[in-house]
Amino acid sequence: MATQDFPGNINKKQEDLEPNKEESSGEFMTTNQGVKVNDDTNSLKVGDRGPSLLEDFILREKITHFDHERIPERVVHARGAAAHGYFQVYESMAKYTKAKFLQDPNVQTPVFVRFSTVAGSRGSTDLARDVRGFAVKFYTEEGNFDLVGNNMPVFFIQDAIKFPDLIHAVKPEPHNEIPQAATAHDTFWDFISLSPESMHMIMWAMSDRAIPRSLRMMEGFGVHTFRFVNEEGVSYFVKFHWKPLLGVHSVAWDEAQKISGKDPDFHRRDLFEAIENGHFPEFEFGVQIVPKDDEHKYDFDLLDPTKIIPEEIVPVVRIGKMVLNKNPDNFFAETEQVAFHPGHIVPGIDFTNDPLLQGRLFSYTDTQLIRLGGPNFHEIPINRPVVPIHNNQRDGYMRQEINVGKSSYHPNSTGGGCPFQAKMSEGGFTSYPERVDAHKVRGRSKSFLDFFSQAKLFFNSQSEYEQQHIIRALRFELGKVTIPAIRERMVGLLSHVNSRLAAEVAAGLGVDIDEPLAPVNHMFGADANTVEFQPVEKQAPIDNAPSLSMANTIKNTIKSRKIAVLIADGVDEAAVAKVKAELAQAEAQAVLIGPRNGSIVTSTNTNIQADMSLLTTASVLFDAVYIPGGDEHVNALIADPDAVHFVNEAYSHCKPIAANGEGITFLQATYVGTKLGSNSPEATLGLVLSENANSTFIQQFIDAIAQHRFWDREKRDKVPS
Ligand code: HDE
């Protein structure tokens, strides 16, 4: 049965949430017992100036509820933002899986997606250098399926037992709780420098993938190898992917740090506004499928979560699309209380023995018990499936369900044997009967010992500017480390990835690399330093994987991009109006920024409204800048250091800048002016100049914005910003 169509934003999950919604408009205020309140601002006292009375049940109820408003934040992924939407498969995947939501292209399956950072607290900045969580709850007709992934396809460690150590190392240091939401400190790099298995993930985390432009512009990955199982019981290995239709884009690191001050809610706001404006984020669902018999075909272990299957070896097939088209109504009720779990699977999907995944299967229920306060968190509206629940689990804190009848056990005759168990043919979940025949060992497979070949592959596959960004990120991060031995160990590890990378990072740190340290491997228990458990040096089967470089992403749309238009009194209104309209046609948004809020008088003596003032915004919050013409307006901008800074900063972050008419005179008065006459091709990349704001000029500007950034400008000297 197909869920209801989306126009109107209603799907089965939305209908399910409806009875729990509360809307106060036109209603009297009541206590939690439903008693109408006649004074919510004064407590009950003995005389006007006397003490408050204990009998004031209205005061007590209000204060008590307030006192208990907070719940523990997530131990990781505390900061997040979420949205509702739906998923639809393109064509039946019956050949590979019997999962019902992957059969019928006419079925829309409701989803709730939460994006997050990992290390920071609930109130930390969105723009931390960090992995992003990408957790999708599918409310399928067979129960909930949670795909709890990240925006990077590999992980730091190979075994769940190390997770508490990794997280203790990355979180603020315990003696002073510094730094917040940052990896650039001693304990994180100490741990990493002693954990060579992290090197592939470190390449990703130091790349621009760790500072996305938008949650709508990043990939998602299931990370582990999972299983598909079809109706005949045949199993395939599968890796899950999300591909954003807007491409994969990032900001500059300097920009990220500034956004963290100017608008720490940048990503959250971007997601919320995009959905409110009808620019629904869209992600295609991709799978890499490996037949069961090919398990040992590759030079890496499919169970090792520090490895990808390069897309160049097993292509990603796009099998469906997810559209996020509704913001939550209430952050706490939905985004905060949603409880994901990689163990929430449906028939047709199953686990593998990836030791990281196996540990996760324990952790997620356990963490909800403390975070949400008891075993009935599945009854919280956002968590409950759209299909009914029938079992003999009973009671516990905050139980909502009123189970009727006297039998709460199985087998029973008092309840007619109900609820019945379902055979596999009736949709009963049946674990894939994998044969496992081995000794119990506390150890790790030797097939997990290659730590460097895919780190190399990642670094080698990056464009020149991406490699430079990784080098600079490592210089920044390790430059904040205060213990020299940690920096030296890291340079030692980097030298196993790429000698130029190691040399350039070392040069930035003042580390002498004549004798880089051999990798120290403290990760394999008592056996760690035996010859057998030393890292294995291998060559990846391919030297370069273009799919790993963001330089090769989609660059054909400016949908939902934000363009700053600098205006002052005397601005050319016609130019502003034309550029604004044509950008809107291309589904981008022009924001008028004035020296002050309110009316700006144009060159033709009309009034236009500034959306923001230079005081309340900054170039780092925009994708591009446009400076229209107008004599008086340009003189005012030239005299305004904030306007000059705005443009210099946008240039420094390699953003497109367009100017026409006298707007060009303004550019000449900024630092960018020193580049205009330059005969270096890189220096003028992304600058779009024209006498008139005609359609050709605007189209050139649109094309430049679609390119996202002109990173090659960084090859030239940098503009101060
Ligand atoms: Fe998680 N992780 N994780 N993780 N994880 C949590 O569960 C854990 C890992 C991921 O938006 C926690 O409900 C262990 C990999 C996301 O609510 C906790 C290990 C991947 C989210 C937990 C990992 C993830 C979490 C904290 C190593 C990508 C946020 C709060 C074995 C594939 C979900 C919670 C949301 C959250 C444990 C590693 C993704 C403590 C033990 C690998 C997206 O249960």
From TrEMBL:
Xref: Pfam families: Catalase (PF00199), Catalase-rel (PF06628), Catalase_C (PF18011)
Catalytic activity line of the entry: 2 H2O2 = O2 + 2 H2O
GO cellular component entries: cytosol
SMART domains per record: Catalase (SM01060)
Binding site for heme: R74, R114, F163, R360, Y364, R371
Keywords noted in UniProt: Heme, Hydrogen peroxide, Iron, Metal-binding, Oxidoreductase, Peroxidase
GO biological process: hydrogen peroxide catabolic process; response to oxidative stress
PROSITE patterns, per the entry: CATALASE_1, CATALASE_2, CATALASE_3
Active site: H77, N150
Domain of life: Bacteria
Family annotation (InterPro entries): Catalase (IPR018028), Catalase_AS (IPR024708), Catalase_clade2 (IPR024712), Catalase_clade2_helical (IPR043156), Catalase_core (IPR011614), Catalase_haem_BS (IPR002226), Catalase_immune_responsive (IPR010582), Catalase_large_C (IPR041399)
Cofactor(s) it depends on: heme
Enzyme Commission code(s) on record: 1.11.1.6
Cross-link 3'-histidyl-3-tyrosine (His-Tyr): residue positions: H341-Y364
Stretches the record annotates as Disordered: 1-43
Sequence ranges of Basic and acidic residues compositional bias: 12-24
Chain's role: Decomposes hydrogen peroxide into water and oxygen; serves to protect cells from the toxic effects of hydrogen peroxide.
Similarity comment text for this entry: Belongs to the catalase family. HPII subfamily.
Protein name stated in the entry: Catalase
Organism listed in the record: Chitinophaga skermanii
